[in-house]
């Protein structure tokens, strides 16, 4: 599942009131604003992308006039549409564009599909949102590199738009009414972006201490709860749920922002069902936090610490599939057992059940593909 997102359409109100709504949106993780009047003022507020017809905007808006007086032109011959020509010209000049389309007929739907083959984003608007043929447009453009945004009026419509079909719209656009609505819709976006992994129970078959290796700690910009960790493994097709350091220990204080993940060659699961080598991670990257039930959330890497530490080899088996991973050999390093509880690698025994993720796909440069790759 790809991450969902929200944009706001700033209301036509005084700048000071508008500024407060935009600032709250930014604090809630919504960093794109469609605005027709205050481009320069908004750009001063922070790292915000502004969608506007002006050439200086971050994303150029096609299909709505500077006074908000229209939508994409509807020509009988779509191939001769002036808006299509404008979109092509902007795209050829390396511009990022968003097309604003009011869906009022089958012809508007066809126009949306046509310009969706050119634009980076298409914003679908309707007086009665529930009759917009979102499913058809998603299906027609599913193989195109375009993000489909549904304009919605409230939280209920936002959830419906993001969950249409198995895919749903990539994002939503809404005009915020108040601060509470912004936070409510931001939470819906976060929830619908959350992927879930079907965790299996593997049986420990071997535990063996090893010499030292370069071990990676992932310090994130988020706090993790008990029961949360990251999917880590020596094999991209079979990864262990390594618990965060959110538990107290008699040896060290809890560090709920950290996962002691293992040596540099191991994989970690990242958003979009992709993986990275631990050695590749840098400040600002995103990784997935996974809880004992397989539910995920993306977090930002704040720091990566690589230090030489003694290692331990963990071997397990699931339905005849033998899997392995390396971890630091220390009492504070924990996996998650079949009951969803953290268990230290120093206490693991042959026959214990621990939670793992088994992927049927092979991987090429971290992306799941249909191919046979042998890892041992």
Automatic annotation (TrEMBL):
The keyword Oxidoreductase applies. InterPro entries: DHQS, DHQS/DOIS_N, DHQS_C, Hint_dom_sf. It catalyses: 2-amino-2,3,7-trideoxy-D-lyxo-hept-6-ulosonate + NAD(+) + H2O = 3-dehydroquinate + NH4(+) + NADH + H(+). Its EC number is 1.4.1.24. One of its GO terms (biological process) is amino acid biosynthetic process. GO terms for molecular function: 3-dehydroquinate synthase activity; dehydroquinate synthase activity; NAD binding. The keyword Lyase applies. Keywords: Amino-acid biosynthesis, Aromatic amino acid biosynthesis, Lyase, NAD, Oxidoreductase. Catalyzes the oxidative deamination and cyclization of 2-amino-3,7-dideoxy-D-threo-hept-6-ulosonic acid (ADH) to yield 3-dehydroquinate (DHQ), which is fed into the canonical shikimic pathway of aromatic amino acid biosynthesis. PANTHER family: 3-DEHYDROQUINATE SYNTHASE, PTHR33563. This is 3-dehydroquinate synthase. It comes from Methanobrevibacter cuticularis. The gene is griH.
């Amino acid at each position: 599942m790809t991450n969902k997102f929200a944009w706001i359409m700033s209301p036509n109100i005084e700048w000071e009131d508008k500024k407060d709504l935009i600032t709250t949106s930014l604090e809630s993780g919504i960093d794109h604003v469609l605005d027709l009047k205050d481009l320069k003022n908004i750009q001063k507020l922070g790292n915000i992308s502004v969608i506007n017809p002006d050439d200086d905007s971050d994303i150029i808006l096609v299909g709505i006039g500077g006074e908000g007086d229209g939508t994409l032109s509807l020509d009988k011959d779509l191939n001769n549409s002036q808006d299509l020509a404008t979109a092509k010209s902007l795209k050829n000049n390396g511009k990022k564009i968003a097309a604003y389309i009011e869906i009022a007929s089958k012809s508007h739907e066809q126009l949306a599909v046509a310009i969706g083959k050119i634009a980076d984003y298409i914003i679908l608007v309707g007086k009665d949102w529930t009759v917009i043929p979102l499913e058809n447009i998603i299906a027609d453009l599913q193989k195109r590199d375009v993000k489909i945004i549904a304009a919605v009026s409230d939280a209920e419509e936002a959830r419906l738009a993001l969950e249409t079909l198995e895919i749903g719209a990539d994002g939503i656009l809404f005009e915020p009414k108040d601060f509470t609505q912004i936070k409510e819709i931001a939470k819906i976006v976060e929830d619908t972006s959350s992927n879930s992994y079907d965790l299996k129970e593997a049986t420990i078959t071997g535990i063996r201490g090893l010499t030292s290796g370069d071990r990676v700690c992932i310090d994130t910009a988020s706090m993790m709860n008990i029961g949360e960790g990251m999917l880590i493994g020596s094999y991209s097709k079979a990864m262990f749920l390594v618990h965060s350091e959110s538990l107290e220990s008699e040896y060290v204080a809890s560090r709920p922002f950290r996962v002691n993940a293992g040596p540099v060659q191991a994989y970690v699961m990242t958003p979009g069902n992709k993986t990275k080598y631990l050695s590749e991670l840098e400040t600002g990257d995103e990784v997935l936090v996974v809880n004992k039930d397989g539910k995920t959330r993306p977090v930002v890497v704040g720091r990566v610490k690589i230090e030489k530490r003694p290692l331990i080899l963990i071997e397990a088996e699931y339905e005849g599939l033998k899997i392995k991973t390396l971890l630091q050999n220390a009492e504070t390093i924990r996996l998650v057992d079949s009951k969803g509880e953290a268990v230290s690698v120093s206490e693991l025994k042959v026959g214990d059940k621990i939670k793992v993720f088994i992927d049927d796909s092979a991987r090429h440069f971290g992306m799941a593909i249909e191919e046979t790759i042998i890892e041992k």
